[in-house]
Amino acid sequence: GWALTPFLLKLIDTPADTLADSILYLRIYFLGIFGTLIFNIGSAIMRSIGDSADHYITDRLLFLNIILDLVLVIVFDMGIVGAAIATIISQAVSAILVPMHDEKNMMMQALSEQTAHRPFEAGLEFRIGIPSALQAFMYSITNIIIQAAINGFGTDTAAAWASFGKLDALFWTVNGAFGICDHNLCRFRITEQEKKTVFSKVYVSALPWQWLCAEDRTVLAIFCRPLFSIFTTDQNVINIGIDMLRFMARATYYVFIEVLSGALRGTGDVLLPTLITLGGVCLIRIPWIMFVLPAHHTTTCVMLSYPISWITTTALINRTIYIEKKHAYD
Known about the structure:
The protein is mainly alpha-helical. It contains 14 helices and no strands. The chain is globular, with a radius of gyration of 21 Å.
């Protein structure tokens, strides 16, 4: 990341007036990436044994990051460097707090003793983790390609897209939580006999989650102007961002992607949801940007690739679950 940052930012047509700051921020950010790795592993282990303390730790780290941002950027006037340093300090603290909590947890100690002499556990982690990592990686690749397309519309549009991404993260937090919930629900009911009831419960649970996520986006759409004003005072940037957020607020179909793919992963089927997501996302978004966007060069055309790929992927996963459920009944 440190070495390739300048090359990659130029590759995606980062506006020249933001290139230097972008390189500086990312290089500092990469220095703290190890803390993020430790936190993600530790918090995932805590969730797997029913310990919700990772949420409290996350809240404290977010609060720490906000306070450091305010102090370093506003009080000490460190600008982009202060924001980056605030992030890596929070990541470093997370790398300390999570292992400390794990060491105090009696269930964690028992888990460590049980797996200490099982070398095959590492192979199992790779079998489960690599497809999921590949799925997330391909999401990032397509988002980078879309970012390059957005950058082609100028600095104001790129700034609006960046602000929109911050607000959109609020939605994905809710969405991702339900995916984790259904993953844990299904991982305890993985027999063929129980699959049919598990998938039925997933479908029932997905309905209120979709409503809740839709309400989440609706709230963001209603209060979008004051929310965007947090990030910038440029009215043109704010107006572009509002158009983006309100367009995406109408496209809430993809909530099923996280819920249903989490259910499949929970039943031990890791590779299939990964392949479906790769097909539904990459094989639609990349050709869309390459062939459709040049003929209709608007930001709306760029954003349209999202709901189309979400709906397609949801339909494919839905079909897979139907086959799995039918097989369980047979």
